[in-house]
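Side project, low priority. Logging it here so it doesn't get lost.
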Amino acid sequence: MVELLVVIAIIAILASMLLPSLARAKSRALATNDINNSKQCMLAMSMYVLDNLDVLPAPGWGTAADCWAASKNISPLGPAANAAAYQADYDGQLRYFSGIGLNPPAPGLLYQYLKSPKLLLCPQDVADASVWTKRQIFITSYIWNGGIIAYGENVPNNGQHPTYKLSKFRASNILQWENNEKNPAGGQWNDFSNYPLETAGGAGSTVNDITFSQRHGKAAQVGRMDGSAARITYAEMVGMALNSTAKNDLWYSPLSANGH
């Protein structure tokens, strides 16, 4: 009997040592899947640019115009009434990505290059009744940088802000990142693009206003203008977002000296 208890105790100790390693291995595998999603989105962007005289797809500054992930006037917007209602709301929004079920069919700008809606979601971005259902946008974990339309400061063209050409930006400029899943309030999840500091557009904002997800721990996964995806540190993202003196890979509006 004593020997059996000793064996059980040893097994319990070994299991407690092994489980964190298994969890980290699973997280790394999901992160690999996630960065592949980002890469596919950036490749789709590159193909769109080639087909459209170097003009980038609209980032989704508001929902009244077609954008990279959805056609205009996407609905229903969240929050979902409850966790059970989320699936119906997700399915409803998904029509605006694929165009299927809309009359006339009107897909998002990158649909013909991406096709699979799974490429819009980080596999670790799991629906959570307490936070996740409070979003307005459900179909993607990713957000685009509003810098490609100068954060809405250029003159609207028939209700849609003109998007600049890819050649206007540096290859290393960050176009896509993972939005902050812990903060569904404010403007972070109201459409498909953000400021790097969302609530105040940069002026007077703090680290608490940063829109980046921390689900990957110390790493942040981003998509760049050159069509690549990369892992950089979360600290690097924060440092660039809080920089108000000069253009960097997050702040790059063509209309201002400091990119804001």
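Brief comment: The longest strand covers residues 219-224.
Revisit when time allows.
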